Amino acid sequence: MNRLAAILLAAAFGQDDPTRPPVSGSVEFGHRWLLNNTGNFNSYRSVVNLGEGPKLFNSDLTFRDPSGKLFDESSLLMQSWGGEPYNNLRFDLRKSRAYNLLVDYRNIIYFNFLPSFANPLIESGSLLNQNSFDTRFRTTDVRLELLPSRRISPYVAYGRSSEYGTGIWDFPRLGNEYPVSTLIRNRTDHYRGGVQFNYNRFHLSLEHGGTVFQDDQGTGETNPQSGNRPTPLLGQQLRLDSLAESYHVRGRSHYSRGALAVNPVSWATIAADFTYTNSKLDSLYRQDSTGRFVIPWSLLAASGGMASTTGVAKMPRPSASVRTEVRPLGRLRVVDVWSTDRLHNAATVLLVEQFALASRTTGAQSFTANRLAWAHNQNEALAFVDLTKHFILRGGHRYTWGDAITTSASVLNSRPLRSRLRGNVGLAGLAFRTEKTMRANVDFEAGSTSNAFLRTSLRDYRKFRARGSYAPWPGGSWSVSGDFSWLSNENPGPGANWDFGFQAATAVLEWFPNEGKRYRVLAEYMRSTSHSRIDFIVPQHYIAGRSAFREDANTGTFLFTFQPGSLNARQPGLSLGGSIYASTGSRPTRYYQPRARFSWPLHRNIRWNAEWRWFAMAQRIYAIEDFASHQFVMSLTLLH
Amino acid sequence: MRASAIILALLLSPALGAQPGYVGSEACAVCHEDLAKEFAKTRHQAIEKEPGRGWVGKGCEACHGPGVKHSESTDIAEIIIPAKQKAIVENNACLACHVNQTARVGRILSGHAKDQVACSQCHKVHPKPGELLYERRKPQINTLCAGCHQTVWVSFQRPHGHRLRESAMACTDCHNPHNPSGYAARRVAFGNEPSCFNCHGALRGPFVHEHAPVRLEGCGSCHVPHGSPNPKLLTRHEVAVTCLECHGAIGITQAGATPPAFHDLRTARFRNCTTCHRKIHGSQVDRSLQR
């Protein structure tokens, strides 16, 4: 009898399910061709950057150890390998009541070379962006969590993020600036470890970690150039003959963190956390240049210059929060969250600068001590009332307060700049939910203050948001959803008179008859507007002007998929769709991304795929950046 | 036939059957075989197996409550179905075990909890084949978030944006949906700093010469993280416009409001402030952020 019970239980709960293969999942690989690239290829690389060649597009594999000795289950997810600009990998290894191991890797190429961004020579026909980059951001995270018991779980983790590559930026001198190539090389190593205590009435998490940072950016230029200034300055035709510039920055930080959650009684939950971070950074900078320069303090002509600095910055940053939820009645909950975050950066730097004159050198040195102190505090109290099973009202109040001060104790200016933050915000909202057919959320907040950190901070503002979705019945064939956001913010203060507004309305329709087993349609449309009008001082003659920015945008996406049967069925599949973005205003832009994909089964476990994509960007003002690209992909998907 | 099977299962497990109200998981599996099989492949099977949790042999009833009445009548009204309860009730069924775990520490006032978003809207407690208890694949994570955050997702269709469209990143790389701390469920880096520095470590500082708005109001002062028609994800169409909205006043002693120097904006040399102020995020060398 007991054996029969065991068989029944095992069959139902599948502990040793022999039908589960040790390896399962899918792999897709193939080749991409760029059929026709027209327009500005640098813009194409800055926006899209997909390349040609053989690729591993996707790999989603799950491994299972039938014996369960080393691990229970493992998964390997890989995307876009083989020279792709954005690739990633995630590896999970798990064994119940023993460990969890997670490895996450990401490599993103950051190419940015858009002539409209920083190109002082654009009016002369040059398309050289003088603030451009071709770098790689790589991040790696490894985390091992040990599970010796259900109550206590220690963990260790290591991460590295780095940026490496080349770029173009300017070497600025008085009266002229010179575009030069630069080598970007920095990395941050991050290590941490901690332990979690899980008990029925409380959870405690303690963590200690730190970072090691280094930045070795360098610039070298040996080609003489005249820079961006076509005319002489003080009778001197300025030029740069050679430049060697290097940064040697080393930083360390450590932090300690504690988080506690307690259920002292059934009707209350208290959670608190505290983090203390201390960062220190030492920097060395050296620059040697030859050419024809004007010395800033004497306006004499020099044939070479040298500068070096030695600096150090220290910044402790404590932060804490306490959250309390009290449920005194069945239909009432009161939540209060208090938080504080503050930092204090104290820094000193010694700058030595020398210029070579015809027969002698002249120099200057300065010692600067800087301070930036910032504190931001907030208390938010919200009450939730369950009017009915489906309808919940909430309302509350948020008070934010803080201070900021920056001082620069140099000889020229020792005047501190201060900012204060004092703000009261009223909060209201409702939530409506009927099982799975209809959901709606509405939020409104309004705040007013005469003290904010920046003149473009939230001052007198009102914010409204409504979201909802409706499916006529659970398991039905269609659903609609929508999202409406509105923000109006004003700073009527003298010299600002800022008027900012944002509004976006999004509607989504999904049609999926028979649970989308054969075909599915998804259509999204968003209409958004944004404007910003603010007074400012026009720098060339220091009189008041008014800046105006506006963006009116329409964005639509559409996707139709036809897939009779499941993915591994011997039937073809088709998907058609893409997106369109079209805006008017300060930077009128059109951006198209249509695509079509066809899939054909060659075998029970093999599918052949063909995909066409088109990317096109057109800008009315910056037509020099327009591009279009046809792409074709052919791939195989292996399923197991 | 079904009733016979349930009775048989009850007889075969006398210890469970003896507990008042509880019928035991094998009795549930008689009718809900597919659910039971899929459930056994998830991490939640630990409820069924591990003695310390107090639900050995009756894991189903840990969430669905005592099932004797339902097993006798097969009436759906006789069993608790958390997904059909209001969100707070459903969440409490999950939080009975999970409330004290790290990820849940902030849930009591996370945006999701505030908007009555139930755990099962993102997590598949009874996953179908191919589904996971919690999603690990970036495209699927993004699709899941986009289901409610449509405006944000549509914003990524603009020309410039973080690489979510290409599935190189997931929403959860920057946001923690359980929101232990911070505004808009933003993750933190290195203890208590903005998650932007997880990738952009060179901009973290501390700098000898700070650009105050970066500390005071964060990267969002100048950049739109989700998507923008403007290069480098700037909030405005031109660099000078972005800068002068703050640096456009005189006689103000406010931090971050240094007035502009005499520059002729009519020439392209001065319309792109970062041409010269190239260390705009903070400098170790000079206060004008030029090197």
Would you write up a description of this structure?
The complex is a heterodimer of chains A (640) and B (291). With 640 residues, chain A is mainly beta. In chain A, 4% of the residues lie in helices and 72% in strands. Chain A contains 3 helices and 27 strands. Chain A has a 27-stranded antiparallel beta sheet that branches. Chain B is mainly alpha-helical and 291 residues long. Among the domains of chain B are: 2-80, no CATH class; 205-283, no CATH class. In chain B, 31% of the residues lie in helices and 3% in strands. Chain B is built from 13 helices and 4 strands. In chain B, the strands form 2 sheets. In chain B, strands 1-2 form a two-stranded antiparallel sheet. The radius of gyration of chain B is 28 Å and the shape is elongated. The interface between A and B is large, with 188 and 128 residues.
Topology:
The complex is a heterodimer of chains A (640) and B (291).
Chain A (H helix, E strand, L loop, with lengths): L1 H12 L9 E17 L1 H7 L5 E12 L8 E9 L4 E10 L3 E14 L19 E15 L5 E22 L2 E23 L3 E14 L2 E4 L17 E27 L2 E27 L6 E29 L2 E25 L4 E26 L4 E18 L8 E18 L3 E14 L8 E11 L7 E14 L6 E14 L1 H4 L2 E20 L4 E20 L10 E13 L3 E15 L2 E14 L7 E13 L1
Antiparallel strand pairs in A: 1-2, 1-27, 2-3, 3-4, 4-5, 5-6, 6-7, 7-8, 8-9, 8-10, 9-11, 10-11, 11-12, 12-13, 13-14, 14-15, 15-16, 16-17, 17-18, 18-19, 19-20, 20-21, 21-22, 22-23, 23-24, 24-25, 25-26, 26-27
Chain B lengths: L1 H11 L1 H5 L6 H7 L1 H8 L4 H5 L10 H5 L3 H6 L13 H12 L12 H4 L23 H9 L3 H6 L32 E2 L3 E2 L14 E2 L1 H5 L22 H6 L37 E2 L8
Antiparallel strand pairs in B: 1-2, 3-4
Helix pairs in contact in B: 1-3, 3-4
